[in-house]
Write a structure and sequence with these properties.
This protein has helices spanning 7-18, 34-46, 74-83, 94-97, 118-121, 125-140, 152-164, 194-199, 202-215, 221-235; strands at residues 2-4, 23-28, 49-54, 88-90, 144-148, 170-174, 238-246, 259-268, 271-280. It is α/β, with parallel strands linked by helices. The chain starts with a strand and ends with a strand. The structure holds pantoate. Pantoate (PAF) binds next to strand 2 and helix 6.
């Protein structure tokens, strides 16, 4: 595996890979866990070579968020990617990604969908994500890029950006990888203390219980969302949002909606956890 920090070296390495066939790309913020490694394996299944980036993107963190505390484990990440047979690791320093100040940086805004849910709680977050992903796509120029469905809204924001800006990149969404007790894998799980870690699986358990109510005939989506919030707050979370929405638009379900997604974000101590559950309705 070649590790590069500069765009020129990245382009040179990727040109060599492109000559061998399709190039898949997995953008990450590092601190890799089994969820990320699943994305890498999916990338490998769909392409001839795999490029991974590790960059903790300051543009997607709010002023009071965990940018400084965000876990950085580059050496361990490098070893894990090497073991997965990744071809190129792109780990740029901040000044390579943002040679101009963040205020001067051109941004990519995906309207409407970016303002909902996580976007309402974290103003500017999705513009930060869309901008860095656009920039990384221009640097790597992959045929395919792989994202986890745990960040469901992020995946939709990126799909819209690619569609609206006619970017020649196929986007693949991969199912969330979970701990044996159901907790979605996330770098932010490290912020949980032992007692909170015991409570955390209730997030997914509550989503599953809500889906069971839908299977039994529940169709009052606001009532279901309220029920989720009450369950989570009762278990010790501070629910940020809980919604039941159309899986394609993230707007309230209509008569035509056949695929729904329950989206939740909830604080547990210092950790803001997100999760979701997709379901079909008839
Ligand atoms: O999902 C993430 O880890 C980040 O939001 C991403 C897509 C790597 C952009 O910084």
């Amino acid at each position: 595996m070649k590790t590069v920090e500069r765009v020129e070296a990245l382009r040179e390495a990727v040109a060599g890979l492109r000559a061998r066939g399709r190039v898949a790309f997995v953008p990450t913020m590092g601190n890799l866990h089994a969820g990320h490694l699943t994305l890498v394996r999916e990338a490998r299944r769909h392409a001839d070579s795999v490029v991974v980036s590790i960059f903790v993107n300051p543009l997607q963190f709010g002023p009071n968020e965990d940018l400084d505390k965000y876990p950085r484990t580059l050496e361990a990440d490098r070893r894990a990617l090497e073991a997965e047979g990744v071809d190129v690791l792109f780990a740029p320093p901040v000044e390579v990604m943002y040679p101009v100040s963040l205020e001067q940086q051109t941004r990519v805004e995906v309207p409407e969908i970016s303002a909902l849910y996580c976007g309402a709680s974290r103003p500017g977050h999705f513009a930060g994500v869309a901008t860095v992903v656009c920039k990384l796509f221009n640097m790597v120029q992959p045929d395919l890029a792989v994202f986890g469905k745990k960040d469901y809204q992020q995946l939709l924001v990126i799909r819209r950006m690619v569609r609206d800006l006619a970017m020649p990149v196929e986007i693949l969404g991969v199912d969330t990888v979970r701990e044996p007790d159901g907790l979605a894998m996330s770098s932010r799980n490290q912020y949980l203390d032992v007692a909170e870690r015991g409570i955390a699986p209730r997030l997914y358990a509550t989503l599953r219980a809500a889906a069971a109510r839908v299977a039994e005939g529940e169709r009052d989506w606001d009532k279901l969302a309220d029920w989720i919030r009450t369950e989570l707050d009762g278990a010790g979370f501070r629910t940020d949002y809980a919604v039941v929405v159309d899986a394609a638009t993230l707007l309230p379900p209509t008569d035509k909606s056949s695929r729904l997604v329950i989206l939740v974000a909830a604080w547990l101590g210092k950790a803001r956890l997100i999760d979701n559950l997709e379901m079909e309705i008839k």
